[in-house]
């Protein structure tokens, strides 16, 4: 099986300068993922789970270690030291990230947000419109929400939109940070269906969950994060 991601001896600390403190967020993290594999990570809030995903996506710099990623375009690269232009390309075309919080341009409708994700991959507007429609129908968004601004959405609606925006790209590697945090059981099943579909297509995934039941039968490996260490 083709290896897509390998994290070696990853360390990340945060320095609070005004207090003279150094907080160890994650230390000695080692993970390997093959194509189509899904790893689930659980743990208490503040244990360092999200730090791992943010280091992979390079929204956090690291103190030590390497993150080897098998890119379709660039081959095997260390995400921690590739040029910024290459990292931007990977975020756009190969690596997806689902956050608990929706970040979007002001005065941009839900439909435009999902369509933009498809358009920036180089597809036609007609194709983007069709894929956005399929996502909204899958998550059973009320028709009146399609062309509404997300700042009027509930927390669960924003999260479903965030998931749709990332998954519609069918990324090579997908990072899921609490993708079911504010969802009801029915919506969780809709997310699960998409994850299962992406797995069949070969998407590799790392997910952070508090809902252990959601992980059952879905994750190939499970880890628990305790004080910055994977158990």
Could you give the topology of this structure?
Blueprint: E1 3-16, E2 21-34, E3 38-43, H1 49-56, E4 64-71, E5 75-78, H2 84-93, E6 95-98, H3 110-119, H4 125-138, H5 143-146, H6 155-167, E7 173-177, H7 185-201, E8 204-208, H8 212-215, E9 221-226, E10 229-230
Parallel strand pairs: 3-8, 3-9, 6-7, 7-8
Antiparallel strand pairs: 1-2, 1-4, 4-5, 9-10
Structure in words:
This protein is of the alpha/beta class and 231 residues long. It has a domain of 159 residues: Rossmann fold (3-Layer(aba) Sandwich), CATH 3.40.50.300. It is built from eight helices and ten strands. A hairpin with a 2-residue loop joins strand 9 and strand 10. Helix 3 crosses helix 4 and helix 3 runs parallel beside helix 6. The longest helix is centred in the C-terminal third of the chain and has 17 residues. It is globular, with a radius of gyration of 18 Å. It starts with a strand and ends with a strand. One of its GO terms (molecular function) is ATP hydrolysis activity. Keywords: ATP-binding, Nucleotide-binding. This is Alpha-D-ribose 1-methylphosphonate 5-triphosphate synthase subunit PhnL. It comes from Clostridium acidisoli DSM 12555.
Q: What is the helix content?
A: 25-40%
Structural classification: alpha/beta
How much strand?
25-35%
Query: CATH topology of the domain at 3-100 and 170-230, what is it called?
Result: Rossmann fold
Number of helices: 8
Mean pLDDT: 88
Largest sheet: 6 strands, mixed
**DSSP summary, beta strand count:** 10
CATH class of the domain at 3-100 and 170-230: Alpha Beta
CATH architectural designation of the domain at 3-100 and 170-230: 3-Layer(aba) Sandwich
- Largest sheet, order of strands side by side? 6-7-8-3-9-10
- Helix-strand topology string: EEEHEEHEHHHHEHEHEE
The radius of gyration computed from the alpha-carbon positions, rounded to a whole number of angstroms, is: 18 Å
Question: What general outline do the C-alpha atoms trace?
Answer: globular
Low-confidence stretches: none
Q: Specify the CATH homologous superfamily of the domain at 3-100 and 170-230.
A: P-loop containing nucleotide triphosphate hydrolases
Distance between the termini: 24 Å
